[in-house]
Amino acid sequence: MLTLKAIRENPEFIIERLAVKNFDAREIVEEVIRLDTLRRNLQTESDAIVAKQKKVSAQIGALMKEGKRQEAEAAKAEVAALKAKSSELLAQADENQKTLDAKLVLLPNLPCAQVPEGKGAEDNVVVRMGGEEPSLPEGALPHWDLAKKYDIIDFDLGVKLTGAGFPVYKGKGAKLQRALINFFLDRNTAAGYKEVEPPVMVNAASGFGTGQLPDKEAQMYYVGLDDFYLVPTAEVPVTNIFRDVILGVNDFPQKLTAYTPCFRREAGSYGKDVRGLNRLHQFDKVEIVRVEKPENSYAALDEMISHVESLVNALGLRYRILRLCGGDMSFTSAITYDFELWSAAQGRWLEISSVSNFENYQANRLHLRYKDENGKTVLAHTLNGSSLALPRVVAALLEDNQKEDCILIPEVLRPYTGFDRID
Fold first, then answer.
1. What is the DSSP string of 358-404?
2. Which of 167, 170, 213, 418 could be a cystine partner for 158, CB 3.0 to 4.6 Å?
3. Which of helix, strand or coil describes residue 339?
């Protein structure tokens, strides 16, 4: 979340920048400043009462020794009144703090200066494109028909077992999934990311730390008996490894990668654009997460973008990279780049990765800090990216590599699959 210091020192700047996200922040910012002023006043008044209470308490013993019983009793009565007033102030301060915290989490992260203005996806900026247009045979099929033709993904069986959006991968389809996961993890670890295997259920504190709660609660699957949430992305557990941590100045960069299944309710999703693998409730994804010093985070972001681009290039797929406009960005992001693959059989672009810098927004919620060269405690910066989300990668691989009698496997995946074609 935004820091109180930033809001207090430059409220108009906060309001101006959040307008780029089409968020009217004035009312909340003004209320936050009012509540913070009240918090400071309550603290000042409380400190004065505690100081007076200590002073009067110290006089009681001396008055008793001097035989001034009446004055001592009066002092005791004053101390009791001061304690009651102090308790009242503490209760007010506690209630004020809860209200202040509730208001703070309503403010999204500030978009950085590079973020273009815009209302939605149509205003995103294409940064660059790569890969070649696939040459498809006559009568090319979309991936859901290819999956049925070669018996590698069963969508109907998934509906029987669970419901729509939970496919069953079979035979070479299942091996292709496993191959992609291992390929992405190997490429990530070769690039210096340490592999971790986190839980796929997290507590509410973890959801809050990365900004899924309370903003995306409706999109998460909730296990009510245990008060856990199924992870919507490995970003949540992996970033929370650093919750309540103070790093040393020489502990940077922190680079982690993880594979997890991901679970998203995707409420309200329907129609042709979510057919097949285009949008699922359960899917596999490999993630990269970085924790950086503030001055290095944008260089790290560029490195992450280049790394994800190298994965897409290795698979030989046509892609484009978009810088998201303010109206299409997530609540927590300061800047986001999306990767999209071209599905020639569907005639549309499919998002397969988002790479984001959150600056210190998540770190403030996580209490993730480090000691700088001067021994000062400073909030770190966090970043994350998909590298990669599997469903739409699989969709593009199947569609773009189809021949009349088979689907060819990209050469880089063959050591992982153990086969060079699906037929």
1. -TTHHHHHHT-EEE-TTS-EEE-EEEEEEEEEHHHHHHHHHHHTB-S
2. 167
3. strand
